[in-house]
Amino acid sequence: MKIIGQFNQGFILCSFLNHRIIIDQHAADEIKNYEKLKKELNLKKQYLIQPIEIKLDELDLLIINDNLELFDKNGYVVKNNKLITLPVYKGIDFLYKDFVDFVEDVKNGLELSNKLNEIIKSKACRMSIMIGQKLSHKEMSSVVYDLSLLDKPWWCPHGRPVCRVL
């Protein structure tokens, strides 16, 4: 892909074969940062002084017990239907309510809690190249190259398309 230049300090114009492609510089950098933050996710576990008895229905308890490894990965250690730990991420504490919400997330097929996902999306957004930021040719090339390394580079975590064929 050949870099043509930057348009309106927000978009990278490229050519590929006979096509012109426009890349949203913020969305492209944001999806890269989002995937990086998810990959490097380092949740800490805060042990509770007093374990919390999990008061949920039988189906929810079954889901928890069938997914103990997933709950552990998200910072929730469960033993004998008691919550032993809660996650802490970058100084943000999670509560029992967040655990209950994560049970619903798991029931909906998610592997990362909605709360944690929103935190990561927000952090990825704030650390990304912004609209209005002038980029050098080298910086534009880097943004385009980084997209080629991603599994799913088509949409930013907030749902904006990363690129379009003109």
Question: What does this 3D model show about the protein?
Answer:
Helices cover 40% and strands 26% of the residues. It is an alpha+beta fold and 166 residues long. The chain folds into 2 domains: 2-38 and 129-165, formyl-coa transferase, domain 3; 42-123, Ribosomal Protein S8, Chain: A, domain 1 (2-Layer Sandwich), CATH 3.30.1370.
What class do helices, strands and sheet pairing give? alpha+beta
**Strand order across the biggest sheet?**
1-2-3-8
How many strands in all? 8
CATH top level label of the largest domain = Alpha Beta
Percent helix range: 40-55%
| End-to-end CA span | 14 Å
Give me the CATH fold name of the largest domain: Ribosomal Protein S8, Chain: A, domain 1
Major β-sheet profile = 4 strands, antiparallel
Radius of gyration, whole Å: 20 Å
Low-confidence stretches: none
Q: What is the beta-strand fraction? A: 25-35%
How many separate domains make up the residues? 2
Q: Could you say what the CATH architecture of the largest domain is?
A: 2-Layer Sandwich
Task: Please give the structural blueprint.
Blueprint (H helix, E strand, L loop, with lengths): L1 E6 L3 E6 L2 E6 H15 L4 E10 L4 H9 L1 H6 L4 E2 L2 E8 L2 E2 L2 H12 L6 H13 L10 H12 L14 E3 L1
Antiparallel strand pairs: 1-2, 2-3, 3-8, 4-6, 5-6, 6-7
Protein name: DNA mismatch repair
InterPro entries: MutL/Mlh/Pms-like, MutL_C, MutL_C_dimsub, MutL_C_regsub, MutL_C_sf
Pfam family, one: MutL_C
